[in-house]
Structures are given as structure tokens and as C-alpha cells.
Amino acid sequence: MDKITNQEWEKYLSQELYDSFNYFGAHLKNDKDNKGILFTLWAPNASEVSLVGSFNYWNDCANPMERDDRTGVWKCFFPGIGEDEVYKYKIFMKNGNFVYKADPYAFYSEVRPDTSSVTVDLQKYEWHDGKWLKKRNKRNLFQEPINIYEVHLGSWKTKSDGAYLNYRELADELIPYMKELSYNFLEIMPVMEHPYDGSWGYQTTGYYSITSRYGKPDDLMYLIDRCHLNDIGIILDWVPGHFCRDEHGLLNFDGEELYGGIDHPNWGTKKFDFGRRAVKNFLISNANFYFDRYHIDGLRVDGVTSILQLNFGIDGTPFRNQLGGTDDLNGIDFLKELNTAIFERYPFAMMVAEESTAWPLVTYPVDKGGLGFNFKWNMGWMNDTLTYISKNTFERRYYHDKITFSIFYAFSENFILPFSHDEVVHGKKSLIEKASGTYEEKFQNLKLMALYQMTHPGKKLSFMGNEIAQFVEWRYYEEIEWFLLGYPAHEAHHRYIKNLNRLYLKEKSFWKKDNTWDGFQWIDVDNSDQSIFSYIRKSDKDICVVVLNFTHQYYEQYRLGVSEPGDYQIILNSDNKDFSGTGQIEKNDYEADEIGLHGMKYSIEIKLPGLTGLIIKKKKSTKKRR
User: Fold this and answer.
1) Does 354 qualify as catalytic in the annotation?
2) Class of domain 517-618 (CATH, top level)
3) Over the stretch 299-314, which tens digit does the pLDDT of each residue have?
4) Active site residue: 219, 354, 384, 514, which one?
5) CATH number of 6-118: 3.90.230.10, 3.30.565.10, 2.60.40.10, 3.30.457.10?
6) Does the reported pTM lie above 0.90?
7) 467 in active site
């Protein structure tokens, strides 16, 4: 590391350098005659920098760093030390003031409220996920089931005294639970170091430092490794749009704003200056870092809208670009460069945009005019669905388009359908509390909504606690209310979600043609008077019919058009007694009649209870050809 040339440092400032984590920060050297740690920092506006830490008894003068005047890069080698040394940089500014800063490239940090960086060796963990790594390179994610379980590690489950489970303990408990419920991707809310628990990790100070709240880097590697051994992919939430203003962090780093641009007054944060090459290198290297060192499978990029717009979260339009508009042209270029760089190295990656507007071509390749992501959260679908489910059943007929409209744009992007943490906090109510009706009806509505999510085109995401129908909003400071599983209605809902998830993974018709009209067909789209929706999902060989009755009305005889003759079977019924339903449907098998309906030549006649969803699969013919 100490043989890096000035030309390489200058490249960091003027050209693409997507593995800058190999150069900056604290790097252990184990040469036979030269053991110790090389500390490297970029602080071009500092007049002086001293390395202070546990190894020099925090002596401000003992270890001044050496500056390269052409690059503003400071270095200091400290011999004879290794892991678990605590350190900071004392940065003297041109105005005579000084500040103690954590290392922007630190790989580990002290447990909050302490803020120093900690030396660690990221190379020592022995991985066991080689089979997974080979398999993921051959995957076509668009033609595979993706069922994501979104988790905040500190509040999924805690110890009896309220203390956090560490990464290894989480691996031992969370992974079997996910396998039991047939979730095949784990999305973890930000694990990058952050000072304030209440930010949930979305206000970051240590971009390369996984949070010490739950253990050390090799503990997180263990969690990811164990997930891969159990065929569970890992998506990390990542926040490249803005950083928090804590003094030890990136803000006003060396007396000047090296990293920041526009203030975000609503968030109390600072937006990154995407026009600076060093900033783009810092962030793109950071994304690369988690794929490279932690073997992750994807990033969910938080707050993409704030990156795309100069005035996001700001009243009025005080900022304009050089063309007179309000788009952040540097932010747009950053996102395109980010996705291009990641997919060149990691073609298997999931790069997911949390983008809340109708910005076009988010999931189109950069060379086709897109931003280059391959998935986007479908916020419009989520908002419309939750609006619909909150309406009383007698008024849902007036909101029919809240369900039908999403299909008009369902294939315009590669969507993920999210019921995320953002929908169950800040007075928005839990999912079951959003649903209208009595106590029993709320459970019926929630089952119906879950079935709709699982059968609608798009990949799936659900936040922890949704699967047990928790009534209280999510609280980051306490665990999910697992005791609810001792109550019949919650236990039945949990069992229903388990069955629904398992069915989703099994049935190719729900994901094989997920991003094309070839996999979807309306049966009855305009039945607003009855608030009943019916449609077909299909793969090359399989057909599933979905019927959703969003009112209390019970139909003894409900005829439904189907596209093909043959035998049909109900494979999931949300009103089944096993799920605390009424059990009014006794018959599961049906033969299509040659009675045309809904523009189709055939139809079947079924019972259809109120507030019920059905999945009906066409059986494969067992007749032998002559």
C-alpha cells in the first residue's frame, strides 16, 4: 500500500477509481520486516494532520502525518500494531481551528455513543459460499421468484433483557425462520455505522464501517455466509444521497466541504456533491466494497428521488442546473456511472431504486437512455393498494381503479411490490390497522391484500411483523410482538402467509413471465359494482386463475371465464378454516364448461365467500395421446 504512486492518487481525484478502499483507511501490513498499519487520508485543505489513538496514548503531537502536496493525501505508518486499535485524525484547519475526525474509510468503529474508528482485518474470514457465488452468476432474476423479507436487525428479535442479538445469533434464529416462511431474499436496513438509533441507519457516518451494535465485520460475514448456504440472497439498504452532520463525520471534513453540497433542511443532513470526482469514487467504491468484501447480492438505493432533484425536501426551487432546470444533472450522471460500474463487475447484482416519482426509464440500461437500475420499488402500486384496502367495502366500487390502474404501467419498469417499514411508522398505522372493518374483517382484508400482492406482476417485499398481523406500528427500540402468535387469529394469519409464500415460490405462473404482458391477462377488469377482480397468471406451461372478492357479499354460484378447457383446482383459499376462515367452500375441483363468459369460450362455476381470495390452477392433462 505504501508504494502507491502520485499518479494513482491523482487518478482518485480526476478519474474513475472504484476500489479506493484498497488505498485509503487503515490497512494492516504483515510483511516479515515491516508489520504494522498504514493510515492514509485525503484532506487537501488541512494545514496539518496528526494520527491519534490508543497506540500512542492519544498524543496529539506524537505522529504527524506526511502530506503529498499535489494530491492532498496524508500518510502515516505505525509499526507493531494490529487489530482493535482505536484511532482518529486530528485535523488542523487553515483558520487555526482543529477537529477530531473518524476515518471516512474506517472498516469498523466504536459502539455508539463513542465515535472513534477501530482497526480490523477484513481478510481473515473464511467463506463457505462458493457454490452460491457460482450459481448466482447464471441466474436470470427476471424469470425467478423473489420474495424479500425486510428486517431491522435491532428490533426483529431481542434478548430477554432487551439487548440486541449479534450478527451470529441473528444468523442462528433469522435464517431458519425465513426458510420456514419461504422468503428467499433478506433485505437489511442500513448496517453502515450511524450515531443515532432513531435514524434506523439512514443517516450514516461510517460508510465502510458496519455498525458495531451487532458485532464485528466477520460476524456480519458469518450471517451473509449462512444465508448463502441456505439459498437466501442478501440485499443491503444503502444511502448515497446524503450524510448526517455529526462533527466526527464527513461534514466540513478539513475545514472545507470535501463531500457535501446542498443542505437538506427537512432531514437535517447534507447532500453529497456528485459533481466531484473524489466523491463519486468514494461512493461507487463503497458500493463495490460490499459486493467485494461482504459477498452481498444487491443494494437497495435509498432516496433516489433526492439524488435526481436539486430541490428535494426544500420549499420552492432555489437551486437550478446550468440548463435552467431543477434536475440534479450531476446526480443523474452519478447514478448512471454507479450502475454501469457495478454491473460491469457484478452482472448478477440487484440494484434496486427507491424512487417515488414517475421518473422515466429507471430500470432501463444506461446505453438505452435509462438510469441503469434493474429493479424499482413500485410506490404507486403500494399507495393505491393501501388506499383501497382502507375504504369501507360499500365504497370500494368508487375506488375500483386503485386496483386496475397498476396494470397499465406494470411492465414499464422491473418492479418490486413493497409493503416496507416506511408504511408502518410515524402514525401511518400497521398494515392490519390500515384495513377497514371489524377485528375479524381486518384479518380477512389483510389476507386478501397479501394474496393480491403475491399474484400481481412484480417481485415481492414485506417488512418484518407484517406476517404476524402486528397491530402496533413498528418500534425500532423493541422487538416484534412475537407473543401475538399465541392468539388464534394471528397464528392463523402467520400460517396463511407461510402457505402463500410457499405457493409463490412453487408456481412458475407467478414469476416466470413477470415483466411482460405474456404472463398476465384480465378476466373481468371492470366489475366495480361487485368489487371483484379476476385475472390469469401464466408461464409457458402453467395457468393460475386469481379471484379477489373485496366485499362482504357471498356468492353461492359465481361463474368465471377461463381461457382453456379442462380441470381446475383451488390451490389456495384465504377463507379456509385452517386460516380462521368460514370454510364455506367445500369443493376444490372443477371442470370447465363450454359456456362463454368474459370474452372466453369456457367458464367454471364456484362459490365465492365475502372478503376472499382464491388461486385456481388448471390441472395438467393426464390423458395419453394415441
Assistant:
1) yes
2) mainly beta
3) 999 999 999 999 988 8
4) 354
5) 2.60.40.10
6) yes
7) no
